[in-house]
């Protein structure tokens, strides 16, 4: 049996990898030796494991997470290719977002912030006191695209049972939401019948996270942005443009920032206005 196997040194040379890399792959469960001598602890490999070893090494060069590499190398040809395609599509989307973020940061670092803010028009609007159905959650930035529409959908369904929706839904950010900070954020939907909303929320129970509160009357300073600008980092520039305008006007913040969604997101095109980024001011 030993004559049919390759020592770790010979196998490493055949696979064009280092013994250190092979020991790492073994420890991570990505490529186990075919045989380990119980006395010496020496690892031995079959020649037909070379292809798997090279595949693991190449996938690691794509910065693929180890768990995903394990899925790829265990899958058959077509499924493995599909898993790689899915991973790389997500990676390219992430790279595109990072490229845009880098350009945005270059503008900030070079002192061109005012040029970026100039494309946003800041206005104010007075908002009356309202009763709102809410759902608050600690969430990271990558979860927002899923949680926001889902939570607003739940709240709008509830509002329709309580006299109807009486205004644009909005999301309040009580603290930064990023990949390092989890807010919390609060989805809100204005509702016509506050008492009915309270009864409906109580039936849902505390575990649902849905509550009812009164949103006091306030003035909003806001900038209207398109669907394309909702993506990071454009939305950061919009918020900063509003903050710069507030400072120029000598106004004070009167509450946490928010995004007000007034359009049908699914029907909107990239250049259609869909959202106001806003701060309550006084």
Give the full name of the CATH homologous superfamily of the largest domain: Regulatory factor, effector binding domain
Report the radius of gyration as a whole number of Å: 27 Å
Q: Low-confidence parts lasting 5 or more residues at pLDDT below 50? A: none
- For the secondary structure, the number of strands is 11
- Distance from N terminus to C terminus (CA atoms, Å) equals 82 Å
What characteristic shape results from the CA principal axes?
Answer: elongated
Sheet/helix structural class: alpha+beta
**Into which percentage range does the β-strand content fall?**
15-25%
Number of domains: 2
Describe the main β-sheet briefly: 8 strands, antiparallel
Order of helices and strands: EHHEEHHHHEEHEEHEEHEE
According to CATH, the fold-level topology of the largest domain is Multidrug-efflux Transporter 1 Regulator Bmrr, Chain A
CATH class of the largest domain: Alpha Beta
How many helices? 9
In spatial order, strands of the major sheet run 4-9-11-10-6-7-5-8
- The CATH architecture category of the largest domain equals Alpha-Beta Barrel
Helix content: 40-55%
User: Average pLDDT across residues?
Assistant: 89
Task: Give the topology.
Elements: E1 6-7, H1 8-15, H2 19-27, E2 35-36, E3 43-45, H3 50-61, H4 66-74, H5 77-109, H6 113-117, E4 122-127, E5 130-137, H7 144-160, E6 170-173, E7 185-190, H8 194-204, E8 210-215, E9 218-226, H9 234-249, E10 258-261, E11 273-281
Antiparallel strand pairs: 1-3, 2-3, 4-9, 5-7, 5-8, 6-7, 6-10, 9-11, 10-11
